[in-house]
UniProtKB/TrEMBL annotation, chains A, B:
Sequence ranges assigned to domain Aminotransferase class V in this UniProt record: 38-339
Endoplasmic reticulum is among the record's keywords: no
InterPro entries recorded: Aminotrans_V_dom, PyrdxlP-dep_Trfase, PyrdxlP-dep_Trfase_major, PyrdxlP-dep_Trfase_small, SP_NH2Trfase/AEP_transaminase
Source superkingdom: Archaea
Protein name: Class V aminotransferase
Homology family: Belongs to the class-V pyridoxal-phosphate-dependent aminotransferase family.
Lineage: Archaea, Methanobacteriati, Methanobacteriota, Stenosarchaea group, Halobacteria
Species whose genome carries this gene: Haloferax mucosum ATCC BAA-1512
Length: 396, 396
């Protein structure tokens, strides 16, 4: 018996989003989301597509013609990258130091690839010597790494060295930039990255649904000369080439409102200036880091691979991290998250991304997290946290 | 050299959307799109997910537990259906009477299936006897058909007969309901359809980005007992089961705003009542059909397989259809479309879907199309078109 559901008005709570994503969406981007639609083949939409591609190249720091939003969330751009670049029988090298390297492996296997791994502990970056050794041993065709590991808060610092090793072995490099694009220094062309992808709901502060992807001509040549078609029709770049390339012919209906939104989100990056935006993330996340450290908490990664957009703060001994996370959500409408995988329960994952990277958010975080820990009897110095935070912000 | 792009404010033209989709989005749905986000694992979002699933079951006319929005546009829900249900080596029967049967075939092949076809001319539905013969000859494991062919304006009228044939051969039935869900009578449970999918931007008048999918327990059992994982990680229902099932664990970031929007779009269907909504489409599209016929134009399909949501109007001899389409866009900001594939240039595809299925839109369509045809020297009787249109609308 199918009855008519009684579902009320949409009234979600008003959260402050300082978890691993989504981040707070800028009001101008929300407004773009509510713009009445034109058709996905409308001449005016073609112009909007051009704008998005141009802005996305600016934010990726690339001249790659092949720079598009994929019609799905971040994992969709990831699967588009892996699924198109990897052909059955090829060897794919992925990292084992975080959650998203594992996801890469799963996608590479489904693409018909053979997965080999380069190891580092969760919470540490890959060492160049280990990558070199893995290349010498396995001679992979494709090497995927994670520039900004959302699960561990680690920034991979030696990217140009990694791409140099890969290219010396004639391999293609795929960079997961989900949590770095638009917030953390990333130079696709200067660092010689073949394929990079990201999510819009992190440092771009855009609702998820259309996800940045860029490929060099060299990578796109590999895709277009595949022996067998990709295993996904929806993500097939040789077909998407018809829509996002010169022809602008129908492939699938683009997520029009999400394209509107990412255009506005990218436009905000261009207005701020990409270097200024990286600087803001360093400063505001630096205040967050100084604040929690002055309260007596430590960050999980070492300073040389600290990831400003995702701060992995170690939960003090005796603290139930999940209870503290529930506390700040309940008392302050503030979202932060727990660890994933090997770090579940051990760390807080505190995002400082895009429009969420503001002093008022950091102040709320220090106050709310301090109170949540005190409520569990922890000895934290919230006043010292505020002082340290203000010290960093005062420099800006 | 990467320069900062100078991209201005987002100011798309204000179109009336009467093409094959997207349709005009209801203002309440646009407002839902601009709602500030909560996280995809927020307790409040879990409730929103429950609402969406309950409303979607109502609109599909099903009790299927496995009823979810797929994180992508309509082709994403299509690929999720085909990619999960079809295992390598299985035989898949698809129709050859329209564009989207061809897309189904391409997806089935990429899933490792062997494609066989049941034929009917473009612009005609499948005949039960032909389907029976194809089953007897090929013994397919999966049978896909298109309930509402957006490329030809044909409604497949004999669905219960088709599913009976398929089930007598122990096959699974996948129904493409992209252009019927929420506008044209569809009874997933009563008609014994195993898997149905749709797009949100047609008769639901919701921006594309989260697309309805429903599977029976029998179909989901097949998916969960696959020998090999699906070839897509992003669309793997055995993994999505963790997020949309009882566990609500992380798989990928849901397109939160699109889920907000489809909740509101489905809520509008429930407020109107699904049977009333089917009736409105019949009445308003009936007025459109009467109007263009009274002007002297014909529809491509016969009346018994007329599809109210997508009217395939034959372009008169000597008329350049593309010029007429450009004319109404330029003079009236009105979007209609040309034929696809075998019908390119021969027909106008005029949508009458969801919020676009309103008397004012039909009046505009009759006026604008009539003028565009007159501008090319055609002998059309616009006044008769208006009278016929008003005659049908007056009955409502």
């Amino acid at each position: 018996m199918i009855t008519t559901p009684a579902v009320g008005e949409l009234v979600p709570p008003n959260r402050t989003l300082m978890g691993p994503g989504p981040s707070d969406v800028h009001p101008r981007v929300l407004r773009a989301m509510s713009t009445p639609l034109v058709g996905h083949l409308d001449p005016s939409f073609i112009e909007i597509m051009n704008d998005v591609q141009e802005l996305m190249r600016y934010v990726f720091r690339t001249d790659n013609q092949w720079t598009i939003p994929v019609s799905g969330t971040g994992s969709a751009s990831m699967e588009t990258a892996i699924g198109n670049l990897v052909e059955p029988g090829e060897t794919v090298l992925v990292p084992s130091n975080g959650y998203f390297g594992g996801r890469m492996a799963s996608m590479a296997e489904r693409a018909g690839g053979t997965v080999v791994r380069v190891d580092a502990p969760w919470g540490e970056p890959l060492d160049s010597a280990d990558v070199q050794a893995a290349f010498d041993e396995h001679q992979p065709d494709v090497f995927g790494f994670v520039h900004a590991e959302t699960s561990t808060g680690v920034r991979q610092p030696n990217v140009p060295e990694l791409t140099r090793i890969a290219h010396a072995h004639d391999a293609y490099v795929v960079a997961d930039c989900v949590t770095s694009l638009g917030g953390v220094e990333l130079e696709v062309d200067d660092w010689d990255i073949d394929v990079a992808y990201a999510g819009p709901q992190k440092c771009l502060s855009c609702p998820p649904g259309a996800s940045p992807l860029t490929l060099s001509d060299r990578a796109m040549d590999k895709v277009l000369s595949r022996e067998h078609p990709t295993r996904s029709w929806y993500f097939d770049l040789s077909l998407l080439e018809g829509y996002w390339g010169d022809e602008r012919s129908y492939h699938h209906t683009a997520p029009i409102s999400n394209v509107y939104a990412i255009r506005e989100a990218l436009r905000l990056v261009a207005e701020e200036g990409i270097e200024n935006r990286w600087g803001r993330h360093l400063r505001v996340a630096g205040a967050l880091k100084a604040g929690v450290e002055a309260m007596g908490l430590g960050l999980n990664p070492t300073d040389d691979c600290w990831l400003p957009s995702l701060n992995a703060v170690v939960a003090p001994d005796g603290i139930d991290a999940d209870d503290a996370i529930d506390y700040v959500l309940e008392h302050y409408d503030l979202e932060i998250a727990s660890g994933l995988g090997a770090l579940a329960g051990d760390i807080f994952r505190i995002g400082c991304m895009g429009y969420s990277a503001r002093p008022e958010n950091v102040a709320l975080l220090v106050a709310a997290l301090g109170e949540a820990l005190e409520a569990q009897g922890a000895d934290v110095d919230v006043a010292a946290g505020f002082d340290a935070m203000r010290g960093v912000l005062g420099d800006g």
